[in-house]
């Protein structure tokens, strides 16, 4: 496995940012928001065909955009993403760890393999990005590692044991990295929305409906009701919060979006 990346401070003002899970949903909205803020972007997801959406990001923002089709459950995928970003634009100055799946089932159906996959994706990949980029970011005196976590990283939601455990791990990792790397000038965030209207949520609603007690529409309404804000978040709202953190770099770490006024809950 390649060792840590090394770099001098970036030669230009334009950040080089990896956005994982950027082919749809929240990640695509984040790519569009960051493209509008003049980030140079490497978009990562597994399905190469869906990454053709990069053309939409370019058309809407004029940003420089490249893609890498990678499965981030593999331990060497973050190194491959960093290598691709470096080849196209220079060593990354920020990573938005957004790629995710949301396994949902009763605890008696939650297997060790489901937990392992969730941990690999939501905790393992962000740790690898941090491990590989921390030396270069510390040398530069700046850099940002952002985790798209969830209120499932702050509280418990029923039927999501593997996902909730992984998201708590993701928030815990952000807190540890913040404590370690903030003194070196790096910013580490965990952004925690409640249920968001995206493919993950619609798939979960369809799965609930398939069990036969309710319709997918009713399941969506019930999920929205679990949010403290009383409705689904929209991907563009989450993306605006992420872009604001990358722009303004406030000193907190864990941002709870499921409030009338989003607030740090470190
Ligand atoms: N939707 C919600 O209610 C909600 C609420 C709170 C937090 N979140 C978090 O927000 C993030 C984005 O969720 P979303 O709702 O936008 O989901 P989504 O619409 O299903 O998009 C998920 C993205 O992640 C990619 N991805 C999934 N597994 C991957 C893997 N192993 N390697 C690389 N890429 C992978 C997908 O592309 P491929 O399938 O092609 O790989 C896709 O681009 C997730 O971390 C999720 O946990 C979501």
Task: Walk me through the structure.
By secondary structure, the protein is α/β, with parallel strands linked by helices. Helix content is 45%, strand content 14%. It is built from eight helices and eight strands, in the order E-H-E-H-E-H-E-H-E-H-E-H-H-H-E-E. The longest helix is centred in the middle third of the chain and has 29 residues. The radius of gyration is 18 Å and the shape is globular. The N terminus is likely disordered. Bound molecules: NADP nicotinamide-adenine-dinucleotide phosphate. NADP nicotinamide-adenine-dinucleotide phosphate (NAP) binds next to helix 1, strand 2 and helix 6.
CATH structural architecture: 3-Layer(aba) Sandwich
Which small-molecule ligands are present, each listed once? Answer: NADP nicotinamide-adenine-dinucleotide phosphate
> Helical amount among residues, as a percent range?
40-55%
Tell me the Rg in angstroms: 18 Å
Name the CATH homologous superfamily. NAD(P)-binding Rossmann-like Domain
Strand order of the largest sheet: 3-2-1-4-5-6-7-8
Q: Specify the biggest β-sheet.
A: 8 strands, mixed
Keywords:
disordered N terminus, 266 residues, Rossmann fold, 8 helices, globular, binds NADP nicotinamide-adenine-dinucleotide phosphate
Give the arrangement of secondary structure elements.
Elements: E1 16-20, H1 25-36, E2 40-45, H2 54-61, E3 65-69, H3 77-88, E4 94-97, H4 112-140, E5 144-148, H5 161-181, E6 187-192, H6 199-210, H7 216-226, H8 235-248, E7 254-256, E8 263-264
Parallel strand pairs: 1-2, 1-4, 2-3, 4-5, 5-6, 6-7
Antiparallel strand pairs: 7-8
Helix pairs in contact: 1-2, 1-8, 3-4, 4-5, 6-7
The structure holds NADP nicotinamide-adenine-dinucleotide phosphate.
NADP nicotinamide-adenine-dinucleotide phosphate binds next to helix 1, strand 2 and helix 6.
């Amino acid at each position: 496995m390649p060792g840590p990346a090394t770099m001098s401070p970036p030669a230009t003002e334009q950040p080089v940012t990896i956005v994982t899970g950027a082919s749809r949903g929240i990640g695509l909205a984040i790519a569009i928001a960051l493209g509008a803020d003049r980030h140079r972007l490497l978009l990562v997801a597994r399905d190469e065909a869906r990454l053709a959406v990069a053309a939409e990001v370019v058309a809407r923002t004029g940003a420089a955009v490249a893609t890498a089709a990678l499965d981030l459950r593999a331990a060497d995928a973050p190194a491959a993403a960093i290598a691709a970003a470096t080849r196209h634009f220079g060593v990354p100055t920020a990573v938005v760890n957004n790629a995710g799946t949301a396994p949902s089932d009763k605890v008696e159906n939650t297997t060790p393999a489901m937990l392992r996959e969730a941990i690999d994706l939501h905790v393992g990949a962000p740790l690898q990005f941090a491990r590989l980029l921390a030396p270069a970011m510390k040398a530069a005196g700046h850099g940002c590692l952002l985790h798209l976590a969830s209120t499932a990283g702050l509280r418990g939601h029923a039927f999501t044991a593997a996902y909730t455990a992984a998201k708590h791990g993701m928030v815990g990792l952000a807190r540890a990295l913040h404590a370690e790397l903030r003194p070196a000038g790096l910013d580490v965030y965990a952004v925690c929305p409640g249920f968001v209207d995206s493919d993950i949520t619609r798939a979960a609603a369809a799965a609930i409906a398939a069990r036969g007690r309710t319709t997918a529409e009713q399941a969506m309404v019930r999920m929205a009701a679990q949010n403290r804000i009383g409705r689904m978040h929209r991907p563009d709202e989450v993306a605006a919060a992420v872009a604001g953190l990358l722009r303004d770099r406030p000193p907190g770490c864990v941002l709870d979006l499921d409030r009338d006024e989003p607030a740090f809950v470190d």
